[in-house]
Design goal:
8 strands, about 500 residues, globular, 3 domains, about 65% helix, alpha+beta, two-stranded antiparallel ribbon, Gyrase A, domain 2, PTS alpha-glucoside transporter subunit IIA
C-alpha cells in the first residue's frame, strides 16, 4: 500500500522545525506522541510546530514529545524515521534563524537546567523505565480488550455461538502470555538480552509449574503475573551481566545463557512467584476495598489528583497496577475513575472559551484541541490552555474530582466500572468498559461520571477560574505585531 501523502507531508513539515535530521538522535512513539531525542532543544521552532494542523501539542520531558493523537502517530513515525535516515540535514540548518547567539545559548542553558532539575531524579528515571516496559504493550491490550468486550456482548445476546469460542481465544491469548512480553521488554530496558528475559518470565505461565511446591503450597501457572515477570527479568539481567564479567570468553556463548536462565529460573520458582503473587493479590484486594469502602470520597481524591500526577510524571507508577488488575479481574477499576480528570479538563476549557469571548487566540486553540479532549487526548488542552493560565488547571482538577466521586459512589453501591485495557480515556474508553453488572449499567455510570466532570469543571472554572485582573488582561484579542499601532515619533 502506498503511503498516505498527508502522512508524509506531516513528517516532512515536522523535521525542519525540530532542527533537521542531524538534530534527531532517536525516534519512537507511544499511543499519542512522537517521541524524539534531540541534540539541541534550542533549535526547535516550537510555535511553528504547534501551528501545524496535525500537531495537537508538545511536551518537553526526557524526550521531546509531539502530540499527534492515536492512529496518526503510528502512521507518521515510520515516515519521519525514513526522512531522518535519508536526509543529511544537520542541526545547523536552523542556525541562521533570526535569533542571536546569546539568545540561543541562554535558551539552551535554561532548557537543559530545567529538564535536569525536573526529570533526572532516580525515582522518575525508574518510573520512566517502567513506562518503557509497559507502553509498547498497550496496542495489544486495547485490541484484545475490545475483542473481549465484543465476545461478551455476543455471549449475552446468544448470537453467533460458533464464533464466540474463537473470539475468546483471540482475546485471551495475549493476556495468557503477557508475562513473557513483560520479561522481554524488561530485559531490553535494563540492558540485558531480551530473549533471555522472556525465557525466564515464561516459567511463570508454564502449565507444568503446578507440579512444584514452594513455601508449603503448590504454585499455579500465572502466579505473580506481570510483577513476577518484571522481577524475574531484572534478576536475569543482573545474572547475565555478572556472567559476562566472569565467564571466559571462549565459554560465554554456552555458559552465560545457561546460568542466566538456570539461576534466575530457580529463584523465580522458589521465591519470586510466591512473593509477587502475594503482592498482586494485595493490590487487587486494596483496589476493591478502596472503592467499595471509600466510595465517593476515594473516587473524589483519585479523580482530583490524577492531573497533578500526570504533570509530575508519577502516573507511570500506576501502569503495572492497572495491568495486574486486568490480569486478575479482566478489568481495572481504577482507570475509569482516573479518566474523569480528562472530563474536568474538557469542562474547564469550555468555560475558558465562554469567559474569553474576545480572545481569538485562546479560543482558536480550544476549538482545535477540544475534539481530541473528548476522545481522551488531554495534552493539547493541558499544555495549551489550562496549565499556562494557572487557575483553570486547579478548577479542572475539581471537575475531575466530582466525576471520580460519581463513579466511586456507584462502586460503593456494588456497581463496579472497569476498563479491559489501559491507554484510552474519555469517549474512547466506551468500547473497553466492563464491570460486574450489565453493559448498559456500566456504560451509564461511566457516561454519567463524564457528564458530571464536564459540568463541574465548567462551573468551577467559570466561577473561580479567573481573577478580575486576569479577565481584563485576557479579554482582548492579541494584535499582530505588524498591525499594532505605532507610538508617535518624538521630536
Amino acid at each position: 500500500m502506498a503511503p498516505d501523502p498527508r502522512t508524509r507531508a506531516t513528517a516532512a513539515a515536522i523535521l525542519p522545525l525540530v532542527g533537521g535530521a542531524g538534530n534527531v538522535t532517536s525516534v519512537a512513539h507511544c499511543m499519542t506522541r512522537l517521541r524524539l531525542g534531540l541534540r539541541d532543544l534550542s533549535l526547535v521552532q516550537e510555535e511553528a510546530l504547534k501551528a501545524l494542523p496535525a500537531v495537537l501539542g508538545v511536551v518537553e520531558d526526557d524526550t521531546y514529545q509531539i502530540v499527534l493523537g492515536p492512529g496518526t502517530v503510528a502512521r507518521v513515525t515510520p515516515e519521519f524515521e525514513a526522512l531522518v535516515a535519508s536526509a543529511p540535514g544537520t542541526a545547523a540548518d536552523l542556525a541562521a534563524a533570526p535569533r542571536t547567539a546569546g539568545e540561543l545559548a541562554d535558551r539552551g542553558a535554561a532548557i537543559k537546567a530545567a529538564r535536569k532539575a525536573r526529570n533526572s531524579t532516580p525515582f522518575k528515571l525508574f518510573l520512566r523505565r517502567i513506562a518503557n516496559i509497559f507502553v509498547p504493550l498497550i496496542p495489544a491490550l486495547i485490541g484484545c480488550g475490545i475483542i473481549a468486550g465484543l465476545n461478551g456482548l455476543l455471549t449475552n445476546l446468544g448470537r453467533l455461538p460458533a464464533v464466540v469460542p474463537a473470539l475468546a481465544a483471540i482475546a485471551a491469548g495475549f493476556m495468557s502470555l503477557i508475562a513473557v512480553f513483560v520479561g522481554y521488554n524488561t530485559a531490553k530496558e535494563f540492558g540485558g538480552t531480551p530473549i533471555l528475559g522472556g525465557a525466564v518470565a515464561a516459567i511463570i505461565v508454564f502449565p507444568g509449574i503446578a507440579k512444584i511446591t514452594a513455601f508449603g503450597v503448590h504454585l499455579s501457572p500465572g502466579q505473580g503475573g506481570v510483577l513476577g515477570a518484571l522481577g524475574a527479568a531484572v534478576l536475569a539481567v543482573y545474572v547475565e551481566k555478572w556472567c559476562r564479567r566472569w565467564v571466559p570468553e571462549s565459554l560465554d556463548v554456552l555458559l552465560t545463557p545457561t546460568l542466566t536462565v538456570l539461576v534466575s529460573g530457580l529463584v523465580t520458582i522458589f521465591g519470586l512467584m510466591f512473593v509477587a503473587g502475594e503482592v498482586s493479590a494485595a493490590i487487587g484486594d486494596f483496589a476493591n476495598r478502596l472503592l467499595s469502602g471509600g466510595g465517593a470520597a476515594a473516587g473524589f481524591v483519585l479523580g482530583g489528583l490524577f492531573l497533578p500526577l500526570v504533570m509530575l510524571g508519577l502516573h507511570q507508577a500506576l501502569i503495572p497496577i492497572h495491568t495486574t488488575l486486568i490480569e486478575q479481574q479482566s478489568y481495572t477499576v481504577l482507570l475509569p475513575i482516573l479518566a474523569m480528570a480528562g472530563a474536568g479538563q474538557v469542562g474547564a476549557a469550555a468555560a475558558v472559551y465562554v469567559r474569553l469571548p474576545h480572545n481569538t487566540s485562546i479560543r482558536a486553540t480550544i476549538r482545535s484541541a477540544l475534539p481530541a479532549g473528548f476522545l481522551g487526548v488531554g495534552e493539547p488542552l493541558i499544555y495549551g490552555v489550562s496549565l499556562p493560565l494557572g487557575r483553570p488547571f486547579i478548577t479542572a482538577c475539581i471537575g475531575g474530582a466530582f466525576g471520580g466521586g460519581f463513579v466511586g459512589f456507584f462502586s460503593m453501591l456494588g456497581h463496579q466500572v472497569g476498563s479491559t485495557a489501559i491507554g484510552p480515556s474519555g469517549w474512547a474508553l466506551f468500547p473497553l468498559l466492563d464491570g460486574n453488572k450489565g453493559v448498559g449499567e456500566t456504560i451509564a455510570v461511566y457516561g454519567g461520571g463524564l457528564l458530571v466532570g464536564y459540568v463541574a469543571g465548567f462551573l468551577a472554572t467559570y466561577i473561580f477560574g479567573f481573577t478580575q485582573p486576569m479577565l481584563e488582561e485576557l479579554s482582548v484579542s492579541p494584535v499582530p505585531a505588524e498591525t499594532a499601532p505605532q507610538e508617535p515619533a518624538k521630536v
